[in-house]
Amino acid sequence: MENCKFGTHRVLEPKGVLPQPAWKIDNNPDIADNEILIDVMRLNIDSASFRQIVEEVGKDEEKIASKILEIVDKRGKMHNPVTGSGGMLIGTVEKIGKNLRQRDLKVGDKIATLVSLSLTPLKIEKINKVIIDQDQVEVEAKAVIFESGIYAKQPDDMSETLALSILDVAGAPAQAERLAKKGDVVLILGAGGKSGLLCAAAIKRKFGKDVKTIALVNSKRSLENVEKLGMADEIIQLDAKDAVSIYHEVYKLTDGKMADLVINCVNIPDTEMSSILSCKERGKVYFFSMATSFTKAALGAEGIGYDIEMLIGNGYCKNHADVALDIVREIPALKEIFQEKFSK
Amino acid sequence: MENCKFGTHRVLEPKGVLPQPAWKIDNNPDIADNEILIDVMRLNIDSASFRQIVEEVGKDEEKIASKILEIVDKRGKMHNPVTGSGGMLIGTVEKIGKNLRQRDLKVGDKIATLVSLSLTPLKIEKINKVIIDQDQVEVEAKAVIFESGIYAKQPDDMSETLALSILDVAGAPAQAERLAKKGDVVLILGAGGKSGLLCAAAIKRKFGKDVKTIALVNSKRSLENVEKLGMADEIIQLDAKDAVSIYHEVYKLTDGKMADLVINCVNIPDTEMSSILSCKERGKVYFFSMATSFTKAALGAEGIGYDIEMLIGNGYCKNHADVALDIVREIPALKEIFQEKFSK
Questions:
Q1: What pLDDT sits at residue B92?
Q2: Are A113 and A89 in contact (CB under 8 A)?
Q3: Nearest to A312 among B273, B277, B294 (CB)
Q4: Which residue from A36, A20, A319, A80 is spatially nearest to B297, judged by alpha carbons?
Q5: A314 to chain B: which residues are within 8 Å by CB?
Q6: Model-level pTM?
Q7: Phi, psi at B289, each rounded to 5°
Q8: How far is A60 from chain B (nearest CA, A)?
């Protein structure tokens, strides 16, 4: 299957699967007509993957570099075989396949990939520096983006670090503003973290007073972030696992009507029931948290006879990167929080 | 919290959680004003739970009965501590709390619970018979249904066994006919099993030729079931894990437009990518399969930049039991398949 838009033509083994589940892919920098070649400057290794490597070889720049070279040499991609995860990369566009030249992209543009390194063909010539505190690696390398691959142009008006910290959770705010409707009560669990703050900001930017936002936070730091952002109409400070107490708080704040939309941005397990119980009949729960258990959500709603729609948080939606970056640009308090707390 | 509609007033330990995650609940048959007392005839133990008990104590009716009595005595509910699962029960309504008397239910009605035994207060007086082949237990017992609990009246026109085999997957067809729209192409993965057949039938009953159904099956038995039902416009026989081949088949059958709605009723892992790849941009994937991995779905869609809506299969939706029973009543071929293959 030459030139498959998902990149299956580059899968070496096992045959027939997609590049992400594949063990080894072809990292040849001669691109097909529907591929893009990137001159890579920096890898942002997934934090679980980076931590595993440090644990395995020690906090030693050279040994970490060797391990990364070894993995990429074996697999044709920076796909950690232990954690299964990848990361993202930044680089400049070196070549655009002729079938993709109608895109709003030109040679020399600086871009960040929004698909995982675990599926991105990568050939490293040299590792120049390992920045241990940031899980980042400065490299001389080439990478290939498939026709189905997604990426964002590095904005001129903010630092790479800030842009990366926003793009990391870009799926959440664009989905949030798409799911909310005028008149809704929206409950955000984990409202003080990166994705939670972006969701609150996205909804308030679009709907203002036409949507009531309730922010659920637990830590003092999260509470401070939400207060500083100033886009929550109500704040509940409770453990996100305490389903019954949260239910009663939301009940009080909504005169028993409960939330039309619940957005779960928490990163701890066992918060499914809190999300479900706070939702009204035929309302929606959007699980953006990667700690969500499919069965706990499915059986939890059934167990109390709740007819609600539960959505799996898709990390991608159309224009998600632009939406996320624009929100931070337009809201100074949000930009400040991201710069102070999430981009160091 | 007296008379909580979710039954938290019956939680003994740990305090503050819901009856399902609770270790022990109060099985006192003196019901509150918003509860229903059931005179239980038969427990249908969840198959994972029943198998675990048989493995632990052997295929011995008396020992199985003792084990069940021991669990219910300890926890106040038939909530297997090893598997975490429950099952359902059949019985007759003995008493209706005064706040629930406006419901369409009267003392003496025979009902099956549609919430899990893992959250249902149960007091067993005597076990009369253990029917090992059916995972069922004939009992003299009392059970309590909470205000939020759901149940279905046993239909007069079919056997208990047939009704139970339908009610077991009742969430699927009602959701399927709600999600489909006129003009849609609907792909059903695992179309030859109970829930897959019910989904195909539900959609065809409602939309007829206005929806095109594509059935994906793997085994010969499943293929036979789908052919006998006669409600698939196209049939693909492939391993549900083979994402790329399925993509190409669906591509051919839809002239590249792909499916508007994908319903995943498969009971094996690693079918997320097959579902995602077969779906069109802004289409929907409904994961009814309990083998679905939340992260594989979320990262899988992101990895190929697919802007689709992915739904967690809720075992409950309004009128789901009536919808499922009616479909089987109205479609003789479906009733025959259920009687022959699923109710033995």
A1: 96
A2: yes
A3: B294
A4: A20
A5: 298, 301-302, 306-310
A6: 0.85
A7: -65, 130
A8: 31
Per CB-CB distance under 8 Å, the chain B contacts of A312 are 287, 294, 297-298, 310-312
Burial class of B12 by CB neighbour count within 10 A (0 to 12, 13 to 18, 19+): middle
Which of A171, A293, A308 has its CB closest to that of B302?
A: A171
Distances from the Cα of A258 to the Cα of A189, A194, A206, B311, angstroms: 14, 25, 21, 21
Query: Hey, what are B267's tokens?
Result: 């009971």
Question: Which residues are within 8 A (CB) of A285 and not within 5 positions of it... i.e. 6 or more apart?
Answer: A261, A262, A264, A275, A276, A279, A297, A308, A309, A310, A311
- Distance (Å) from the alpha carbon of B36 to chain A's nearest alpha carbon: 15
DSSP for A63-98?
HHHHHHHHHHHHHSS---TTT---EEEEEEEEEE-G
Q: Are A52 and A83 in contact (CB under 8 A)?
A: yes
CA atoms within 13 A on the CB side of B271: 27
Tokens encoding B249? 């088949």
pLDDT at B1 over 50: no
Q: How far is the C-alpha of A18 from the C-alpha of A300, rounded, in Å?
A: 33
Q: Cβ contacts (< 8 Å) between A302 and chain B: which residues?
A: 114-116, 171, 314-316
ipTM of the complex: 0.85
pLDDT band of residue A1 (cuts 50, 70, 90) is very low
Identify whether A14 is preceded by a cis peptide bond (ω within 30 of 0).
Answer: yes
Q: What are phi and psi of A19, to 5 degrees?
A: -60, -30
User: Which of these, B152, B180, B184, lies nearest to B328 by C-alpha position?
Assistant: B152
Half-sphere exposure of A33 (CA within 13 A, CB side): 5
Tokens in use for B233?
């416009």
Q: How confident is the model over B201-256, as pLDDT tens digits?
A: 999 999 999 999 999 999 999 999 999 999 999 999 999 999 999 999 999 999 99
